[in-house]
Amino acid sequence: MLYWYRDLMISKKLKKKKTHHIKRVERYYRAMPKSRIFGKKKRAYEHFVGKKIPWKEYFVVIKATNPDNLFEVISTRQLILRHYERMDLYVIGLYASNDEALSAVQEMLLNGYSEDASYEPRDVFSDMDDFETYTKEEVLSKK
């Protein structure tokens, strides 16, 4: 399930229609039953062979699933993979390009360490009350 940070970092391009873009990413995450794709022994990309891929690519910054890392930057096109179906993803930022996402993470870390030498990024995003989720009805509504 996707959980969104209350003070979501978002690129300037996407800021005008923030909820629209969040709901699109949610739709991509729920695009199709992942077990159906793999149940037929098809790879995820084979489902789209000969068809136009139905979504714009966004890049999300999430809390790292690996305890050795701080953050991960992933493309929304990866969300159709079964690996992400079983995980709770905590989204911290939403960006239009990979370069924007990486520079935002770099800037966040540099600002944090310049203000306080004992800055710990994991502690900043550790409170689960700061994350909210959208119901399926909210995502699928056309509004």
Quick overview of this protein structure:
By secondary structure, this protein is an alpha+beta fold. The chain has six helices and five strands.
Detail the topology: elements first, then pairings.
Elements: E1 2-10, H1 18-29, H2 34-39, E2 59-63, E3 71-75, H3 82-85, E4 89-95, H4 98-115, H5 121-124, E5 131-132, H6 136-140
Parallel strand pairs: 1-4
Antiparallel strand pairs: 1-5, 2-3, 2-4
Describe this structure in words.
The protein is of the alpha+beta class and 143 residues long. 34% of the residues lie in helices and 20% in strands. It contains 6 helices and 5 strands. It has a 5-stranded mixed β-sheet with strand order 3-2-4-1-5, sandwiched between helices. Strand 2 and strand 3 form a beta hairpin. It is globular, with a radius of gyration of 16 Å. The model has no long low-confidence stretch (mean pLDDT 78).
